[in-house]
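sorry for the late reply, my laptop died twice this morning and i had to redo everyting from scratch. anyway the thing you sent over, i finally got around to it. pasting the sequence first so we're on the same page, its 666 residues, then the predicted structure underneath. double check i copied it right bc i was rushing
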Amino acid sequence: MTTQAPHPTGTGSVDAGQLLEMYRRMRRIRRFEERASDLYKATEIPGFLHLSIGQEASAVGACWPLGERDGITSTHRGHGHVLAKGLDSASMMAELMGKDAGTCHGRGGSMHIADPGIGIFGANGIVGAGLPIAGGVATAAKLRGAGDVVVAFFGDGAVAQGMFHEAVNLAAVWDLPVVFLCENNHYSEFSPAAEQHRAPLSARAAGYGITYEHVDGNDVVAVARTMTEVVGRLRQGAGPVLVEAETYRWHGHYEGDPQRYRTPEEVAAARERDPLLVARRHLETAGVGAAAADAIDEEIDKEIEAAVAWARSLPEPAPETLYDYVLAPRPDVPEPAPLPAGGEVFRTMDAVRLALEHELAADPDVFVAGIDVAEGGNVFGLTRGLAQAFPGRIRDTPISESAVVGTAVGAAMAGMKPVVEIMYMDFIGVCLDMLLNQAAKLRFMTGGRASMPLVVRTQFGAGRSSGSQHSQSLEALLAHVPGLTVVMPSNPADTYGLLRAAIQDPNPVVFVENRLQYGFKGPRPPADHLVPLGKAKVVREGDDITLVSWSRMVQDCLAAAELLAVEGTDVEVIDLRTVAPLDRATVLASLAKTNRLVIAHEAVRDFGVGAELSALAVDEGFWHLDAPVTRVAPPPVPAPYAPSLERVWLPSRDTIADTLRRIAAV
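ok and here's the structure:
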């Protein structure tokens, strides 16, 4: 790792030694990217390559006052940021070349470099995505109270993203120690900034009620002085700051970009403000001769050539490592003993609150955040009283789902265990990027460097005329994303045990409750009750038909099975509990016994989890089948509002029983 030199402590003069170190860091970035450009042209670097040549001063100056514990988030153009923060050039060159010894074991490439161990919380291929994540890292810093700060790099194009608004607003409301640093190179990909925005960043900062600073992004001394002063304020408890560093990228948006959107004369004029030449002039003013800078050039040239030679010599990841880093190893949780009959009962809503309370008390790294979860106690009253019991750790957010889940991602990477709430499962679409491209993929893309112990709680439930935008069961959408665990309990005891297990799990878990079950009563387990993730349970044994379901529909399946029992058909009911990863073994073992499979679920029939189970039965259980695999589910129609239509649309105990009778007769 590159050693970080002493930093200026104020806005006064910078001494010659510091100037030389600033120049060294900028020269390292410049030469690294020049060689990366050459290697890309020679096809030694695959994929995409976005270079920041011309923007070195903003990266080095912004990271100048940062220590190892401070964090940064970056962009798809992030080589300079991570090198300035202290990442070594050799492992990063190996990463760009797709080698197993690369920073992220060849899983991330140019756009996804990360090393949370030294405060690098990820470059990111999604424009603006680093901003909510930075808010999460800053939340962790604020909760720990050690004076750490976060710098969130972004380009001027990201200002048009909703994630920019959500992240900055949340940071302002929570007074987070984060600097939003815009490297304004005046182009959003191919489009000039004037065609993308009407309001300047200074006006936007005022709108959020935060401080704004402007700096010459090509002058490393000016950037370092500004950032040293800003970071100093944040360490003393000040809230977020928006810093605009005006600069210019010399290369195109990507390597190979024909750059028809700007003239050679414009680029040539920008080169006259080369950050390295500006730094050399500072050195000259400080009495440092050109020979010292020339010596640094030679030193860095040798360093980068050695990095290239080393990276070339390395193997790519072995094919048998394909599945590495998708999920962190899970703790071994045994199946709990059956609960005794006649004991205390409690409701599903009690199970949620008690599970949260237990984990908050047991682990200071756990916190809860979401819309109205603190003072309001959640829209269903599930978190009532927790804010008073755990001050500062039950956090109300604005109505900003991307910022909420982004906060969870960043805080998890920083070592916390966030439990965040999305009020309705239907709203998952609003924040899908943070689940699909961030929470689910960052452990894999960083080669296991990023930890992701987070829980997203949400709820769904059709049957009460909530309409098409408040009734959806979207588990298939989430289960299709590698890296996500999707849990859907069917009773109060499992809700308690699975939620506790989810919070303790080192992987991102989407925990889906059914709101129609919040008042559902069942046996209350002991306080240490845990239920293993990824393990289904046979909740009714039988020999004639296997009936698989999850969430509230399990109760309808049990009721249907009792109806069939009276008629002489013995139905085995399996509660998946965890939808992803799917417990294939339990389903196949039951199918081998009964030779018939019916799947019932509340999500629409087409392309659902039931289809996956059907494919499993045909693929791996074909020779056991004595009847067609059948699904009982709503048709591919949005959930109706009118009760008369919703009754037809939603399966019930009786429709499940009718299907069981038909399959039993085959």
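The first helix runs from residue 16 to 41.
thats about all i looked at so far, will dig more tmrw
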